[in-house]
Write a structure and sequence with these properties.
By secondary structure, the protein is mainly α. 60% of the residues lie in helices and 8% in strands. It folds into three domains: 3-115, Orthogonal Bundle (Arc Repressor Mutant, subunit A), CATH 1.10.10; 174-335, no CATH class; 389-485, no CATH class. Strands 1-3-2 form a three-stranded antiparallel β-sheet. Strands 4-6-5 form a three-stranded antiparallel β-sheet. The longest helix is centred in the middle third of the chain and has 42 residues, at 175-216.
């Protein structure tokens, strides 16, 4: 690339939100706030909650001597105008929601990579490149004899490896190499989840382009109109639409989903996983759900754009939009024809009556909330909060629980009765580790017990000598399955 072309490209990129955010004097503060609220935790927040959290952070920064004179709403509006945030109004929601723009996500990823640099070259990355190239060479080879020879060689290698394992010569990856590969997988999966935002932006741009083509078409029936009246989803049939549809089918395929879940369960049971930090373990535990949530969001956007574009055409709404577009162009042509006859400084003998109405955005309206005027009532004791099995698996991955003692307690109870729930076990053997014992029994029950359709309440004493309770799924340990606990 020639220098002048590269300079022109970079000047154009310099005006885009990603570069402006990184070059801004307040960039570190903006990136830190957006990362903590819309990247590491939730990916979208209602406007009221987001404003409240930003206001709380700004108060803490002001207490530390930082200069932030404006309100949280003003800063959020500025970030929205600069392209760091996106504002959406989901169907059925009571208020608008904020989420990061693609530019802000890329900026956070870039800065996080600088704070925690990736290894320059690792064995796992080189292995991925070699395996991908070898697979590409095999899948594009049209010579059937070479492909058969490679398959025969692979079969011989597999037979040799099976024979070695049967003789007790099994090769297992060292912990350092396994950790390296695990972190490489986390990096790739995180990048994959971030790609969904770019795909959604492509659909958004495609939707605008198609509407623009409809508006600019002066004929009675253009190609876009003919396709839409024929019932063709132009967005779904685009390159981005076909690519995402193929990926979505792969992600929602039951066999592929089962393979992914089984592999994740196997990896999470390995000893080396304990050396990952809590954030990495949490990412692995939520990997399938994250991919499905991000993919489902893009899939819903794809379907919504296709339906809205069809409605735009079939309801003849585009005719009114086209009429307004023609009126604006006529006004522009009339202004251009008069530019040489009327000077910009000449006084026109025309009086323009301005409206006296005060124009405000609907988002600035504050609805009346009768509960704000209600008299404070007496605080009632709430029910015990529930504990679900999904949160249990995350707690187990981050804690050290004495499973040996818990198994012995369950076996001792099963010697006296044919079945026992977690509450029955805790009645005879109180929770020595507090909540940790309850979590451990839930983990054992999810693997070796039988889950009933109702729940039960269990109690324990915490480290502060305060008694607490929670509702948990009712899980029974059975005597006939006691050997699984040995």
């Amino acid at each position: 690339m020639k220098a002048d072309k590269a300079i022109a490209t970079y000047r154009r990129m310099r005006a885009q939100p990603l570069w402006r955010l990184l070059a801004s004097t307040t960039g570190p503060t903006v990136i830190g706030l957006l990362q903590s609220h819309l990247y590491e935790g939730e990916r979208s927040l209602p406007a009221s909650i987001f404003h409240e959290r930003i206001a709380r952070d700004l108060e803490e920064l002001r207490a530390q001597g930082e200069d932030f004179p404006q309100t949280a709403q003003a800063y959020v509006a500025s970030w929205l105008a600069d392209g760091y945030l996106e504002r959406r109004f989901p169907a059925g929601a009571s208020e608008e929601e904020y989420e990061l723009s693609t530019a802000a996500v890329e900026a956070i990823r870039f800065v996080s990579g600088l704070a925690q640099p990736h290894s320059a070259a690792t064995e796992s990355r080189l292995t991925l490149v070699i395996e991908a190239l070898a697979r590409l060479a095999e899948d594009t080879d049209t010579d059937k004899f070479r492909r058969i020879d490679r398959l025969m060689a692979e079969q011989a290698r597999i037979d040799k490896e099976i024979d070695a394992i049967q003789k007790g010569q099994m090769r297992v990856l060292p912990h350092t190499t396994a950790l390296e590969r695990t972190r490489e997988i986390i990096t790739l999966a995180d990048d994959l989840a971030g790609d969904f935002r770019r795909v959604r932006d492509q659909f958004d741009q495609l939707n605008r382009d198609l509407r623009e083509r409809i508006m600019d078409n002066d004929g009675n029936r253009g190609d876009v109109l003919d396709s839409l009246f024929a019932g063709i989803d132009l967005i779904s049939e685009s390159d981005a639409g076909r690519t995402f549809s193929a990926f979505w089918r792969l992600l929602t395929d039951p066999e592929q989903a089962a393979t992914l879940d089984q592999a994740l369960d196997s990896v999470m049971s390995r000893e080396f996983v304990g050396q990952l930090d809590a954030k990495e373990r949490r990412f692995l535990l939520r990997l399938t759900r994250t991919l499905l949530e991000q993919g489902g969001m893009v899939h819903e956007v794809l379907q919504t754009f296709a339906r809205s574009l069809k409605h735009f055409v079939q309801s003849r709404e585009y005719l009114e939009q086209r009429r307004l577009n023609h009126l604006l162009k006529d006004a522009q042509r009339a202004a251009l024809s008069l530019k040489d006859e009327v000077r910009a400084t000449e006084t026109l003998q025309y009086t323009l009556e301005l409206t006296s109405s005060r124009l405000r955005s609907l988002s600035q309206w504050v609805l009346h909330d009768p509960s704000l005027q209600a008299l404070p009532g007496q605080m009632a004791e709430g029910d015990a909060p529930p504990i679900d099995l999904e949160s249990v698996s995350e707690l187990v991955a981050q804690s050290e629980i004495d499973f040996r003692t818990l198994k012995a307690n369950v076996l001792a109870v099963l010697e006296q009765r044919s079945q026992a729930s977690i509450a029955d076990v805790l009645e005879q053997f109180p929770a020595a580790q507090g909540l940790g014992s309850v979590v451990g029994l839930l983990a054992l029950g999810s693997r070796h017990g039988f889950k009933a359709d109702h729940s039960e309440t269990v109690g324990w004493v915490g480290g502060d000598d305060e008694r607490r309770s929670a509702r948990i799924p009712k899980i029974f340990f059975l005597r006939e399955r006691a050997d699984e606990l040995v």
